[in-house]
Amino acid sequence: MTALSRRRVLGATGSLAGAAALGLLDTAPAAAAPARTDGAAAAWRGSRSANGWKILDEAVSHTVEGSGLTVRLADGDAATLLLHVARRFHYEIDQLREKDVTGHATSREVRRPHESNYLSGTAMAIRPHAYPLGVRGGLYPQELVVVRDILAELDGAVAWGGDFASPQESHFEIALGPAHPKVRGVARKLRSWREAPGLGAGTVDAFAPERRAAVKAFGRRNAS
């Protein structure tokens, strides 16, 4: 086992609060659950999750390429984006195993607003028991390089819970509303890669100088 495969998790920049402040959500989020500071859960109310996507009674089961695992996600662009995260994790950070990936949930009890995004099938957890809510620093530097590369590649369409004020490093979510052009554009790019050899998950060197430079440029854009 290499150093890169010793531990797990993934990353993403920005939080829903930042996206909302910049006007990036194209639909109003649902009524939020009361803010909690004690880790207790509260019922999420309304028909949409915190990122503005419609809450689903059920979600489609999707296969994570190369792993044999399945995860339930909102079909279409949301699944395309989140499955790309899971594939790159599996190929570049650590092999995914049974029960490592969870998606759509039906319980409205959430501890933080971002957990409501599981109700719409627009969030995914990788090894949630290993990386619980409120714990930060679960990534080795080499793993964080890969995580940041994934986030930059997705151009802010996906956010990572490790960047949130209340961190949850197992958590990845669609950061923008369902009709946002970036969601559609990045998903279209990923689908085109699947039809071309030598592109996408399993073909990337996150440590290549040009990719490291792209990650830094992405970070500067999001910080400004």
The end-to-end span amounts to 39 Å
Count every helix, treating DSSP H or I runs of 4 or more residues as helices: 5
* SSE order: HEEEHEEEHEEHH
Estimate the mean pLDDT confidence.
85
**What structural class should be given to the helix and strand makeup?**
alpha+beta
Please summarize the sheet with the most strands. 4 strands, antiparallel
Total strands = 8
Uncertain stretches of 5 or more adjacent residues: 1-31
What order do the strands of the largest sheet run in, or round the barrel if closed? 4-6-8-7
User: Which descriptor suits the 3D outline?
Assistant: globular
Helical coverage, percent range? 25-40%
What does this structure look like?
The chain has about 220 residues and is of the alpha+beta class. It has helices spanning about 15-20, 75-90, 140-155, 180-195, 210-224; strands at about 40-45, 60-65, 70-75, 100, 110, 125, 160, 170-175. The strands form three sheets. It has a four-stranded antiparallel sheet with strand order 4-6-8-7, with helices on one face. The chain has a two-stranded antiparallel sheet with strand order 1-5. Strands 2-3 form a two-stranded antiparallel ribbon. Strand 2 and strand 3 form a beta hairpin. It is globular and about 45 Å long. Residues about 1-30 have low confidence and may be disordered.
